[in-house]
Amino acid sequence: MSRPHHLDSLDVFRGATVAAMIVVNNPGDWGAVFPQLLHADWNGCTVADVVFPFFVFIMGCAMPFAFARRNDRWSSWSGAIRIIERSGSLVALGLVLNLVIAVPHLGSMRVPGVLQRLGLTYLAAAFVVRSFGVWTQGLIAIVLLVGHWAVLTLIPYGGHAGPVTRMHNLAGAIDARVFGLHTLMPGFDPEGLLGTATSVGSALTGAIAGQWLRKESDQRRRVLGLAGAGAMAVLLGVSWSMVWPVNKPLWSGSYVLVTSGLAALTLALCVYVIDDGRCRRWAQPFIWLGVNPLVIYFCSELVGHLIERPLLPRLLGSLAPKDWLYWQILSPLSGNVPGEWSSLLFATAFAAMWMGASAALHWNDVRIRV
Description:
- The protein is mostly helical.
- The chain has 2 domains: 9-38 and 280-370, no CATH class; 42-275, no CATH class.
- The protein is built from 14 helices and no strands.
- The longest helix is centred in the first third of the chain and has 27 residues, at 76-102.
- The radius of gyration is 21 Å and the shape is globular.
């Protein structure tokens, strides 16, 4: 049986996730954002909190397809080199973004970040997927989630073990020791080192889902199997959250189960709708985004940070380009509707602009591998 090396549904899911990342990260006014588009302060989960783990899940899901395409061309050694190179590229791009944010205060530049975590997660998960079978991958994911819980709750820190709070947790202590003051907040970073272990667990759940989709040829079984596993993961995650809360800054095990389960359910819906050809035209912009996701994300973050600075003093004075666009152009055009809607409209327009950029790349048959 010939197994597929590509799924349009995965591109759609990836593109929609990138679009959501751009919307969440670029409101018109940070003082007027719908609560579900803001990250939970500590425990809990909003819509914004599922976007990043969705992308990690998708990254893992794509691995079996990508590795299958390349096995005929790559030796084990060249494949390993490519994994290391890609991981290093992601970390380097993340550091570039942090450098842009820090200028001119380079001494306070943050070291961790979203792309840095993606790079380290990809490095570990890719070697696991290339080296072990599905059952071993699942066992490694379980060990990572349970081990992370045990390290944070059972190892005494500051004179006692637990409770785990923002001000008292071993993950923050490790970040402070390794990165010093170069974290997002004093003594803690939501993309810190310890949470990378459980983000590898998120990627491995995606890889297991991808291997199921490659192996199973019957469309009905593919969708039902993926949806059933997703529902079970959400149920287990919610149950575990009674004692180990869903927490994005820590990337807790219950958070991994809930978000991976939701990702599997969403992917099952995409497989049902897209791969059966029921409804595809509306999905084309997401396919464009899904083909070059990382370069679009990087460029959107770079531009988003740059336009928040007063770059055109002769034209705009001390006003940043983003503030000028939002307050002088978009808000009046929208009839000065309540702040949250105007803010969301700006974010949506910004995401649409990057959809246009991804369409241009698609029409010119440009695919940039990061």
